[in-house]
Every structure is written in C-alpha cells, then in structure tokens.
Amino acid sequence: MVQISSDIIRGYNDTMILNILMKGPSYGYQISKEIKTISDEKYVIKETTLYSAFTRIEKNGYIESFVANPDPEGNGKKRTYYRITEAGLEYYKSKCEEWELTKEVVEKFIEENPDSLTLDDN
Questions:
Q1: Dist. CA 19–CA 39, nearest whole Å
Q2: Topology of the domain covering 8-101
Q3: Which of 48, 82, 99, 118 falls between 20 and 30 A from 68, CA-CA?
Q4: pLDDT tens digits, residue range 37-68?
Q5: Residue 67, helix vs strand vs coil
Q6: Which residues share a beta bridge with 81?
C-alpha cells in the first residue's frame, strides 16, 4: 500500500486539525484518532507533529486551549482541550481555497495510469 509522504501532507495538518475542531472542542489524543479514522488509516499524525501544530496555530490565534475535566463529575485527570476561533475558521476557509488551486495545478502533472508509462527514446 502506498503511504502518504509527511512532506506532502505537512502543509495541511493545520487544516485537518481545524476541520475536526469545527465540530467542537477536543484534545490531542482524540484529534489524532479522528485523523487516523477519517483518513482510513492512510495517515497517522505523529504526536510531535500534532503538538507542534497546536503550538503554532494557537500562537497564530486560530485555536485556543483550555483545561477541563472530561468527567462531568470531576473525577479523573484534567486534559488540555482546543477550540477553533473565528480567525481559525477564516484561515480554514482560505486553506480550502488554496487546496482547490493546488489540486488544479498538480493534477496537470499526474498521469491517470502511471503503470503504462514508458520512457521516450528521443
């Protein structure tokens, strides 16, 4: 099975995280699991990549963090949750537009049936 190169997807980690946070606040492990599930396990985000992204996008004002207890009765360990901000939503929309343009350009260089390609001996 072909794996997605982390170099290719790196520029869209923030977009994936913001997409998940548009559904509601979440925490690191849950976001990581959702990325894996939504991608049909074709992409597994590394923990260091995920937390670097949180730091970067929070610094840019696209998300905000808060500490909460996942148990409504106050039992258990507190977790750091993240939620998307209005600026994050606008950034997400711009990344979606950028993705459409990126696909349009890259598709011009992708052959539909690469197995049938041969070198031209000119």
A1: 13
A2: Arc Repressor Mutant, subunit A (1.10.10)
A3: 48
A4: 999 998 999 999 999 999 999 999 999 999 99
A5: strand
A6: 27, 66
Phi, psi of 68 (to 5 degrees): -150, 160
For residues 25 and 81, is the Cβ–Cβ distance under 8 A?
yes
Distance CA 17, CA 55 (A): 12
Q: Count CB neighbours of 18 within 10 A.
A: 23
Q: How far apart are CA 83 and CA 17, in angstroms?
A: 10
Tokens of 16: 């994936």
Residue 89 structure tokens: 């939503």
Length of the chain: 122
> How many Å is the maximal CA-CA distance in the chain?
74
pLDDT value at 7 more than 70? yes
d(CA 105, CA 89): 25
User: Per-residue pLDDT tens for 68-88?
Assistant: 987 777 677 889 999 999 999
Determine how β-strand 63-68 pairs with β-strand 26-27.
unpaired
